[in-house]
Amino acid sequence: MTTVTLTGSCLCGDVTYEASGDAKNFFHCYCSRCRKATGTGHASNILMTPARLKWLTGEDQIESYKVRDAKSFTNLFCRICGARMPRYSAEHDLAVIPAGSLDVEPGVEPTARIFKGVATSWSCDSTELPEFEKYPPRA
Ligand SMILES: [Zn+2]
Ligand SMILES: [Zn+2]
To answer: pLDDT digit string (tens) for 21-76?
Structure first.
């Protein structure tokens, strides 16, 4: 576990944030929702808990979309540029930080590739990290 403070911003720069907490996991997720939300083969997210997420600028530009039949999958994004932004779940005291939105080195390394069971044939691959068909077992 590593306690980190990370800052990031959206593509147009209107939204900026600071997230701090204990970085528990750093997943490359290959699930279909992450693929649709990012337009890429996988999403790279840092999971912090406990966590604090503070919007520095542009909070009023943030839109959110919760996938209709999902328990909690919600996409937060800047309404001007569409860039994916972090989200915070009070229920789980959990922040999910899209690694690509960071303006600093995260100071933590990716820990696993998850939902490899549904990865596309063309997605990037590697054997350097543990892989899980879906979620990894709870630690
Ligand atoms: Zn933006
Ligand atoms: Zn996913």
So the answer is: 999 999 999 999 999 999 999 999 999 999 999 999 999 999 999 999 988 889 99
* 68 C-beta neighbours (distance < 10 Å), count: 6
Q: Report the C-alpha gap between 113 and 127 in whole angstroms.
A: 9
Residue partners of 119: CB distance under 8 A and separation at least 6 = 30, 41, 42, 125
Q: Which residue has the tokens 């820990």?
A: 111
Nearest ligand to residue 47 Cα: 2
* 126 has pLDDT over 80: no
**What is the token pair recorded at 70?**
């999902």
Distance 9 CA to ligand 1 centre (A): 8
pTM: predicted TM-score of the whole model, two decimal places: 0.92
What is the dihedral angle through the alpha carbons of 46, 34, 74, 44, rounded to the nearest 10 degrees?
10
State the Cα–Cα distance between residues 121 and 125, nearest whole angstrom.
Answer: 10
- Ligand sitting nearest the alpha carbon of 114: 2
81 C-alpha vs ligand 1 centroid, how far in Å? 4
CATH code: domain 2-118 is: 2.170.150.70
